[in-house]
Amino acid sequence: MPVIFLFGGPGHGGSGDPHRGDTVDDTTLDILRAQDLLPFRTLVAEGAEAVMVGYVTYPQLWDDLPASLEPGAYELLREIGFDGVAITDALGMG
What we know:
It is a single chain. The chain has three helices and three strands. It has about 90 residues and is α/β, with parallel strands linked by helices. The protein has a three-stranded parallel beta sheet with strand order 1-2-3, with no helix packed on it.
C-alpha cells in the first residue's frame, strides 16, 4: 500500500524543527496548489491509499495549528482527489 507524507514530510519547506512544534512554512495557497501539491496529485492518481499529515504550520493558509490538526489540510487532500486514510503520529510532539 503506497503511503505518502504531506505537509511536513522529509524535505519539508519552512524552518524549525517539527519535533519541537516550531516548523513554519510561509508558502501561499497559490504556490502550494501550483507546485507543492503536484507530486501528491500524481501519487493520489496512482492509487495512494494513505497519507501521513505532518506538523508544519502554514500561517499564510491557516492560523497557528499544525497541518496535522488543521481541517483545511484535509480539505486540500479531498480537493486533489484523495479519499483514503489520513493519519498522523506522535500527537504529543512539541
